[in-house]
Structure formats: C-alpha cells, structure tokens
Amino acid sequence: MIDARVFDNMAKQLGELLPPAAGELKKDFEQNARAMMQSTLTKMDLVSREDFDVQVALLQKTTLRLKELEARLARLENANDE
C-alpha cells in the first residue's frame, strides 16, 4: 500500500492552493482531500510492487514449465506415431 506520508504531502500541496485567509477551511480541506484519496485508492484494489513482482516471477516460471511440458508431449506423440 502507499505510504501515508504521500497522502499527507498531496493534501498539504492541495491545501496550499487555497488563499491564506481560508484558515480553518484549509485544514478541513486537507483532511478531506487526504481521506478521499485514501478511499479512492483503496477502492481501486491496487497491489504493491513486491506482490506484482512475485506474480511476474510465478508467471514466468509457469510459462517455462508449460513450454517444457508441451515439448515433452510433442516428443511422446511423435514416438507414439512411429
């Protein structure tokens, strides 16, 4: 999951777009923006880079095994035809 500091920094940057006179409204806006970003990203059901890399490695291993089994099957079929 994304580090909470990322949300804090983004919310603060958005809050800085408001005029200084906004005062308390600026603080409320930053809190709401942070909560909205977290909620939206949670709904997106994102995976971490580590989980993604594990799945890529697993897929590569599975693909290699499939190719090996296909080659073995082809050899067995050829031997059976002869």
Explained architecture:
- Pfam families: BMFP.
- InterPro entries: UbiK (IPR007475).
- It is a single chain.
- It is built from three helices and no strands.
- It folds into two domains: 1-46, no CATH class; 47-82.
- The N and C termini lie far apart (57 Å).
- The protein is mostly helical.
The total count of strands amounts to: 0
Question: What's the helix count?
Answer: 3
The major beta sheet can be summarized as: none
**What is the H/E string?**
HHH
What would you report as the Rg, rounded to the nearest angstrom? 26 Å
Q: What's the overall geometry?
A: rod-shaped
In percent, how helical is the residue content? over 70%
Strand-residue proportion: under 5%
Low-confidence stretches: none
Overall structural domain count: 2
Based on secondary structure, the structural category is mainly alpha
Pfam family, one: BMFP
GO cellular component, one term: cytosol
InterPro entries: UbiK
